[in-house]
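Title: Prediction job returns without error message
Component: structure pipeline
Severity: low
Priority: P3
Assignee: unassigned

Description:
Job completed but the reporter wants confirmation the result is attached to the right record. Sequence as submitted:
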Amino acid sequence: MMKNRDKWITVAFLIFILVIPFVTVVRDILPHRQEQELSEAEKAVLEQNGTMTKDEEVQAGSASKEETQQVYTPKESGFAGFQKRINQFTDGLFGRTKLIAFNTGLTSFLTGGTYIESTQTLKGKNNMFFYKTELDGKPIWDYMGINHFTEEEMAAIAANLTATREHLNGLGIEFYTMCIPNKEIIYAENMPDTIARVNEVSRGEQLAEYLHENTDLVFVYPKDALMANKDKIQLYYSTDSHSNQIGAFVNMQEFFRTVYGTSAEIDSVRFRKDITDYAGDLVTMAGLADKYGIDTVYAFETDSADKAQYHDQVLLYVGDSFGGFLSQICKGYYKEVYWEDARDFQYSMLERYNPDVVIWERAERYCEVFSEPILIK
């Protein structure tokens, strides 16, 4: 009897692991396959927040013909290309989202809602979720303070940023740098007690202090401004790894204070509530989007910006997804604003946009890339 049961379990397991890839392949090669598309509301939120990539904008129909022709997608070859195809296949496995949601929901149920099993998402206190990946930066290491830079690494970053400033200044372009604190740093009180901090000075703060003490570079790390404002209103989404646009406003006002000597308070401008049941990237990755639609999406009303802070200049914002949010705020303060993902930046874009000001921004979990000379020909 036991042998028969074990055989049936083995057969069921083999069917399970073979059928899902088979169904995935068949589904992908069927003619007239209907691609999953974003709803109009979701497109509007992503476009407004500035988090859609160039490829996604084209697919969503929000890019112009000229922008479509300018989209650049690098082609990987060799092992990198093979690995990408494997990742694309596994990401599209039939029933993958439902399986993730089942596993996450089961672990949450068994632990009384205090823990979820996810490779990328960590559930903290007060229904706040955090990014625990080690494949897209190491935000938990940043929080723990266990990945500090060496003196040599910070010196290399300082040298690159200085060289970049000198190069762009020689072209008549102002150059500034921003590093946006990880959510874990600002909302440390909501992190699980099981994650111990070895050093409360994070890598981003360490780098900011080094550059302030050893160079005359403008390197904006707005931790203090965020900490001073976080009790007034929520600055980062509970369910997403990013700041909301109110947080982005605080970040940019700290930039204006540092660079121009002017600043404005949150209550001096207007934010429109676009969505009140938003489920962000962290709960989506964990398969919990249907359960945690608890965030409010705010949109900055650019016409409420203080005209005294306006600059009749063209700004090119080179950064990551945080830069999408920040560039939206900047549209109330500059004549023209362009945002480019730092990973796709090409030197020719300086000629295309002819900026007066360049801001190079990276989230704290990416701050080591400030050593890469992407803005120098």
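Comment from assignee: result matches the submitted record. The mean pLDDT is 81.
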